[in-house]
Amino acid sequence: MDIINLLPDSVANQIAAGEVIQRPASVVKEFIENSIDAGSTSIKIITKDSGKSLIQVIDNGCGMSETDARMAFERHATSKINKASDLFAIHTMGFRGEALASIAAIAQVELKTKTHENELGTKITIHGSELISHDAISCSNGSNFLVKNIFYNIPVRRKFLKTNSTELKHIINEVYRVALANPEIEFSFSNNNTELIKTYSSKLRQRIISLFGKSINQHLITIKVETSVVKIYGYIGKPEKAKKIGGEQYFFVNKRFMRSPYYHKAIMLSYEKILSPGMYPSYFLFFELNPNAIDINIHPTKTEIKFENAQAVFQILKSAITESLGKFNIVPSIDFDTQGQIEIPVSSEKYNVKPPEVNINYSYNPFKQKDSKNIENIEDWNKLYSNIGETENEEKYVQSKFDNESETKVDSIQIKNRYILTPVKSGLMLIDQKRAFERITYEKLQESLKNNNQLSQKKIFPETIEFEMSDYLILKNISQELNKLGFDISEFGKNTFAINGSPAIVSNINSKELLYNILSSYKKYSLSPNEELIDYLAKSLAKSISINYNNSLKNKEIKELVDNLFACTLPKYSPSGKLIISIISIEDFQKMLN
């Protein structure tokens, strides 16, 4: 009995869609890339419900004939390649010929298109790979793709789409990528009748400013290097513009967006000694090289690219970044001007060089001074060191000090500006100072939220902070919860918030940096199913405003930290569930010394 059958085209297209079309942003990406390849100078993107209900992309490109419009929805139908060798010399954005067939397999698609030389255009309607209509119509030059109800016939895939704000963020990211790579093309993007992005034909620097705000202009450093291997150009950000939030990092290869941890490492190495740990510089970098020297056909989304001379490109990139940072006086340079400096004489045989001599008073005992404030310590040292060599007496004395430890008042100490060490009856207790502060702050926030206390401290002069569009939309969605935690923020123009107040739970706080930290945490980690947004943000806030490691504490601060920690309901664990306290017993010490 034969068991192998050919899959119907509709099923094969749905399988292909699983690789190419992952979410509404994937549809937007494919349509925009086709519009660019069609020579468009203006591209308009419209969505509803972050693309779940509607995606529409309108361009003024070359358009398609009636036959091409129908053929475009067939699998592996493409105008970009004719033979296998063409795959290794790709100059266009789309080339596989799977995208339109895949989109039509999982959505309700309508296409209106017309070439510039034809009087009439073509309208095609396809639902789930099934052709519904094919008519001649009057329409504008170019192409107008309309997609409704993505994954309507694959409920399982539709169920796994994220929230509208998350899906919208992915669409914005795709628009940013193509807009940066093609500054000569006008782009507009609106969601639910609200315009979010509007750009005009410009140079690269102006395009960056239009997308990321005017404030970025003064922080851009030019990169330009041309070798026989690769040409690299674009901009990097000054170290003081670096953020804890990743997002302003873009690589493009022959105007195609690329992900590359490898080349990101080259940039981070260049910034290594001038950037604080955990901070990320902005960069907008373009690689131009022979298409034969790269392979872009290694991943369905075409964002992973293989380089033939990867190591050489790495070194060229690293050198270019280091040189540009040096030119703009970001990296300290060696100053060979010795005026005013101490002259070190060169050694010569005529000089009789002798080692320095130090006079030592071997009879000196610091504890014999009468004005010493700690008589007990003097006696202890006299007892211990008057019997040096008498092992039995020394062991008895040390053991007596252990036995009487609970009766001796010993202060807590700080180790490596990271841990607090404090004695307890059973031994020594080790406290992680940062996690302890997180627990204390988090429970204070919880108490204030529970009692509806006023948490905000008003600013005399409000601060304004400008975000890129996706981050701005995230903050807009969580602004009510942030206000409950003590922030007083309000919208203040395009992509901008005004900070009118900040959490009163701590003083001397950098409100801008605090918002960036919370945003970074929100973007990096997803909420657990049982965790409310307000509680999650409280944890993020507690982590952000707690003192960091390498922070020296005074004795009074250490005591206050320990007292406040043990006043908490859960002093043993941080809000994220990490251990705060560990006790080393006396028995453990004795085992170490056996």
Overview of the structural elements:
This protein is 34% helix and 22% strand. The chain is an alpha+beta fold and 594 residues long. It folds into four domains: 9-199, 2-Layer Sandwich (Heat Shock Protein 90), CATH 3.30.565.10; 210-327, Ribosomal Protein S5, domain 2, CATH 3.30.230; 372-401, no CATH class; 430-581, 2-Layer Sandwich (Ribosomal Protein S8, Chain: A, domain 1). Helix 1 (9-20) crosses helix 4 (99-105), helix 6 (164-181) packs antiparallel against helix 7 and helix 12 (433-451) packs across helix 15. It is globular and about 110 Å long. Mean pLDDT is 79; it is low at 81-89, 331-348, 370-378 and 380-410.
What is the CATH-assigned architecture of the largest domain? 2-Layer Sandwich
Q: Regarding CATH, which class of the largest domain?
A: Alpha Beta
Query: End-to-end distance, in Å?
Result: 76 Å
SS-based class: alpha+beta
Reported for the largest beta sheet, the result is: 8 strands, mixed
Q: How large is the radius of gyration?
A: 33 Å
Helix content: 25-40%
In total, how many domains does the architecture comprise? 4
Average pLDDT, rounded to a whole number, is 79
- The percentage of residues in β strands lies in 15-25%
Question: Major sheet: order of its strands?
Answer: 5-4-3-6-2-1-7-8
